[in-house]
Fold:
Amino acid sequence: MKSLVSQIHVKSAEQDGKTKTWIDYIQKDLPQHLDWWPYTLGAIPLTLFGLLVATGLMLTFYYVPSPEKAYESVEQITNEIYLGWFVRGLHKFSVDLMILFLLFHVIRVFLTRAYRAPGELKWVTGSIVLFVTFAMGFTGYSLVYDNVSYWGMTVVTNMLGTLPIVGTPLLHLLRGGEEVSANTLLRLYDLHTKLLPVLLACLVLGHVLVVRLIGFADVQGSRGYHPFYPEHTLTMSAIAVGLLVLIVDLVMIFPPTLGQPANLQEVAVDVSPPWYFSAPYMWITLLPGPVALWSLFGGAVVFVVYPFIDKELSKRGWPMAIVNAVVGTLVVVAVATLMILDTRM
Structure:
């Protein structure tokens, strides 16, 4: 990275006769194709992350991270605090839509192979952003502490504990002991409100900086540039306003609900997780635990290093555009099938 920055400084200094600042890199002109909607998908999650942080801060004023008070405080937020249901709904739909648009963004980058050199670092940082966002979703879902979220949290941590070697330490790390307890809830709360948001903010900032330093991938048919300010900034602002209107409508139509309080003596009949964990949950349900978990971890590793796999296969003459189209289609069909199975079992 240091070498890359130095090269860019030298190149810029040679071209302009002066050294550019970080602000210059952020504000430099953008390729024309970033005005096309498929190429705005990366900016939408950034807007939603800002909304998540703002609404999350409001919720922390009322949420109590203890087994005796957690459910009661969520119920109070939903039914008694002025506009509490609305803020909780904004928070919930923000993470749903953030994950949805991140997945759309990943699909677009994968199919267009925009991760090719020198863009490998953009893909790697973006992949980690996606996984940390999933972790945010899981920890937030567990904090509701109704019967479904409690047993969902119990089942997931039980499965992690079955992993060879790392399973038991990981189980103790998340639970703060052998069993789900007050320590578990407190640890998930700290992860959701402190460590993960800070980590995600750093990763998002790093991803944006890497994109601006390395530059955007070339796109056939994209000619010319447009200024970051005011043209691109106004476009992104209009998208942000549109998103806000969409989320408000969704919250008004589908206000947040709350299930029965956690019953530690009786396992919930249905522990199906939120939609973004539906396919992995079904995968784990259908296969033996360690096999399913290791296959998911293996798939995640392949996903992160895919640009380097593409590079090696390309050198050997593989038609990677076709390979990606086939792989992408198969993955989407598999995920959709697992999600449908989850709704019917």
Confidence is low (pLDDT under 50) at residues 1-15. The chain is about 70% helix and 0% strand.
